[in-house]
Specification:
107 residues; mainly alpha
Length: 107
């Protein structure tokens, strides 16, 4: 498992809701069959750490999705956010991360 402090992307990864010093390296190291489990754990943790993640989750539940599919959709969204942060070399920003979905909710 990689040591997160030794990676140049540590600050960006740690800026993500639900990823810390233990789960961050796990997500990086689990790009295999266990990745889904690690990302679902991130999504579940993000429900408590991110108002945007919570709102996204609650919106999917209100549409009638069960908890499992909702967590998978949230995990997919968080992977997209992490990818964007790594690509642009920026830390996670709650407002930026969920602005697209907040705009749809207001429409």
């Amino acid at each position: 498992m990689p040591i997160l402090a030794d990676t140049e992307d540590a600050e960006i990864i740690l800026s993500q809701p639900g990823l810390g010093s233990l789960l961050g390296p796990r997500v990086l190291g689990e790009f295999n069959d266990r990745l889904v489990d690690a990302l679902n754990a991130q999504a579940f943790s993000a429900l408590h750490a991110s108002p945007g993640a919570r709102a996204y989750h609650d919106k999917q539940r209100a549409r009638g999705l069960d908890h499992g599919p909702t967590l998978r959709q949230l995990a997919n969204r968080l992977v997209g956010i992490l990818h964007g942060c790594l690509k642009s070399r920026t830390h996670y920003d709650e407002t930026t991360a969920w602005a697209h979905h907040a705009g749809k909710a207001a429409a």
